[in-house]
Amino acid sequence: MQRLRATTVLGVLRGNSIALAADGQVTLGDTVVKAGARKVRRAERGEALLGFAGGAADALTLSERLEEKLEAHPGNVRRAAVELARDWRADRVLRRLEAMLLVGDPQALLVVSGKGDVLEPDDGIAAVGAGGAYALSAARALARHTELAAGEIAREALVLASEICIYTNDQVQVVTLP
To answer: What is the pTM of this model?
Structure first.
């Protein structure tokens, strides 16, 4: 069975804003099956952002669960992420889901995994997916050496990653808060 590879998602916290950016490419084996997939969006009535990498059905299931946690803990992204990670690790059905999430608001950016990890990067920049390391490197360089806003850093870093990673394209979607 061919592996579905789907994405690069990058989060950047800068000043009082957060940006999540994702490319649009979904690849099955050595074939691009979709170029304009949406992998980042607003959550919790527009007060948080979320992005995902991994199997689409798995990621959407986890996104819905995260939305429930955000509604149960309004304004507390960290608590919602920890609660999701706990459920994800403990629940037999959820445990089989293969995806990673980025979630954040202007105060926090978190990586949530099925192993129970909730990681908050020291520098406010995180990435997941096939091209994550490329996007992360580019974003860190841009953050250190420019005055660009979070959204601009996220977009430019994804474009740079698309020039290197065959699983990442340059059809970048960016969502920001505020």
So the answer is: 0.92
Phi, psi of 34 (to 5 degrees): -155, 140
Angle of helix 56-72 relative to helix 77-90, nearest 10 degrees?
A: 130
Q: Is residue 7 among the annotated active site residues? A: yes
The span from the CA of 127 to the CA of 89, in Å, is 21
Contact by Cβ (8 Å): 128, 95: no
Q: How many residues are given for the chain? A: 178
C-alpha 127/C-alpha 131 separation (Å) is: 8
**CA-CA distance, 99 to 60, in Å (whole number)?**
9
From the list 7, 8, 27, 168, the catalytic residue is: 7
Q: Mean pLDDT: which of 36-40, 61-65, 94-98 is highest?
A: 36-40
